[in-house]
Amino acid sequence: MSNSTATLTASSKPADIPVVPRARISAARVLVVGDVMLDRYWFGDVNRISPEAPVPVVRVQKKEDRLGGAANVARNAAALGAQAGLLCVVGHDEPGERIVELLGESKVNGYMERDPALPTTIKLRVLSRQQQLLRVDFEDAPNHEVLRACSDRFTELLPQHDVVLMSDYAKGGLTHVTEMIGEAKRAGKPVLVDPKGDDWERYRGATLMTPNRAELRDVIGSWKSEEDLLDRVTKLRAELDLTALLLTRSEEGMTLFTDSQVVHTSAEAREVYDVSGAGDTVIATVATMLGAGVPLVDTIVYANRAAGIVVGKLGTATVDYTELFA
């Protein structure tokens, strides 16, 4: 480990987490920008195999819609009590209207650009006895004119928010992400990025990036040790002008890399039920706490605690203020 970098370990026990007053969190204004989708769940029983093919027949008994992608990130921030805004593109269709409805129920301020030619992204999951049997995706990319309108709307919304969060799911909604990051930096706003793919040049200048292990490995390659990891991340941060990088490591917790220190917080010992959406919870919690005035290095303890709670729930879920500080 480099002599110039201090390595710290942060405890993630609930008793060690200072309570952030509700009033401070409710004053936090977080603008989420990115790809939204509708997560649809069909639940049913399987009692036989189809005579048409060797596949189970699911008799659907319950349907449930949830916000996915960037919409789930915004919903997580709102669940904690922040003022969450969401800038995105959806289609002029039933799933798009359903997203608008769910955003209202989640107390998220939706700033929607509508593309009449775009089918709203849907991820349909079929489950039986709490086990996922199948996922079907419906998606396409928005057109250039709508994306440009999104950029113009971003300029209007920027002064009204404290923190900007880019949630990339590679659906085309963040085509102009480099311009947006530059604009936010010039306005003095911290920019958090949940990346997708291996082209991270487009995120240049971000305040914080929050990749998981697989996402980081695709960019910097496999590391042989913690010292090797630090060297690779330090080089990456210098190349992309990143203030910090938060590596989420599943059962190993998470590690924050900054110029002055490396801070690791261990995962809480919990039964993992479903990890989908945990990354959304992490970055939404960091953004909310930053907006509430919590120093970046301290936000990861809250994010780790929130992640430990949300993986115990089915599907894309949230953590509210009471759960976080229970």
UniProtKB/TrEMBL annotation:
Alphabetic keyword roster: Kinase, Transferase
All residue ranges annotated as the Carbohydrate kinase PfkB domain in the record: 29-318
Gene Ontology CC terms: cytosol
Gene Ontology MF, one: heptose-1-phosphate adenylyltransferase activity
Database matches in InterPro entries: PfkB_dom, RfaE_dom_I, Ribokinase-like
Transmembrane segments annotated in the record for this chain: none
Protein name in UniProt: ADP-heptose synthase / D-glycero-beta-D-manno-heptose 7-phosphate kinase
Organism: Candidatus Burkholderia verschuerenii
Classification of source organism: Bacteria, Pseudomonadati, Pseudomonadota, Betaproteobacteria, Burkholderiales
